[in-house]
Amino acid sequence: MMAVSNLHFASICLLNVVFAVIATRTFLTNTPGREWKMVGYLDMTDPTQQCPDSWQKITSPRSSCGKKSTALCDSLNITISGASYTTVCGRFRGYQGGSPDAFNSPRMNIETHYVDGVTVTYGSPGSRHHVYTYAAGVYELNTSLSSCPCTGAGLTAPVFVGSDFYCESGCPEVSCTLSPQLYSPDVLWDRQQCGGNEGTCCDPPNIPWFCKTFPNPISEDLEVRICTDEGFDNENVVIESFELYIHVQGEICIVIL
Question: ω before 208 within 30° of 0 (cis)?
């Protein structure tokens, strides 16, 4: 993991409200009584980095990390080590493989598969709580129940997700192949190349970053899961990079781009 001190920091403090300026790796600085802690970091564009043991390394066409098993989700536990936090901020960058189905799942249960994509939760299995979801839809140019909700055709996110998600497709074709092919020319969740019916999927101004503040302090571990409910010969979602931060002793995080 990259040490927090190696990042470039900037902050604006006004009337005790802390504003985080997030652009590339510009993030909130630590100030007395207000500390940001990096708890998760992965960058597979760095040839020295390896995937966590629970994920497998994809080497072509882009170095990335994906599911290792045939389970619905393969998870990475982010240990908090007893820190009490009120805000989680982060970003993910990934790719679509084959034909993922966004929120078109028969389960819609936070404890199992509810999305083809990446989920961030806190709490242990059986008592998970939603933080943020990065969904992968099947089409840019066509419409389907398996498309992103922002296309107007895809199924809506479950109630426990609400509006705390981003969704994008990386397939520029009318019909995407049922294969392990990665659509590497179009990065997911980067606010770029939202063509056809998914134009509004790039509207949220803070993509790829999210910040979620909770009403009460939390000290439970975070969990990142890569989820798909069909075989690798049909669909896949992989992560090229991510960063996760917690804000201890809780100030409001407002992202300005």
Answer: yes
Which among 33, 17, 105, 52 has a CA at the least distance from the CA of 244? 52
| Closest to 136 in 3D by CA, of 124, 128, 144 | 144
Instruction: Locate 6 and state its tokens.
Output: 């190696």
- Could you tell me if 239 and 64 are in contact, meaning their C-beta atoms sit under 8 angstroms apart? yes
Q: What is the pLDDT of residue 163?
A: 94
* CA 255 – CA 214 distance, rounded (Å): 16
How many residues would you count in the chain?
257
Give the residue-averaged pLDDT of 46-55: 94
Buried b (16+ CB within 10 A) or exposed e, 75-99: bbebebeebebbbbbbbbbbbbbbb
Report, as an integer, the average pLDDT of 65-84.
92
Q: What is the DSSP letter of 59?
A: -
Write out the DSSP string of 139-184. -SSS--TTS-GGGTSSPPPPTTTTT-EEEE----SSS--SSS-B-T
Q: 203: buried, middle or exposed (CB in 10 Å: 19+, 13-18, 0-12)?
A: exposed
Picking from 205, 96, 200, the residue whose alpha carbon sits closest to that of residue 150 is: 200
For residue 220, what are its two tokens? Answer: 């439970």
Maximum CA extent, the chain: 54
- In the Cβ-directed half-sphere of 45, how many Cα atoms lie within 13 Å? 5
pLDDT digits (tens, 9 = 90+) for 8-23: 223 322 223 333 333 3
Please state the φ and ψ torsions of residue 86, each to the nearest 5 degrees: -120, -15
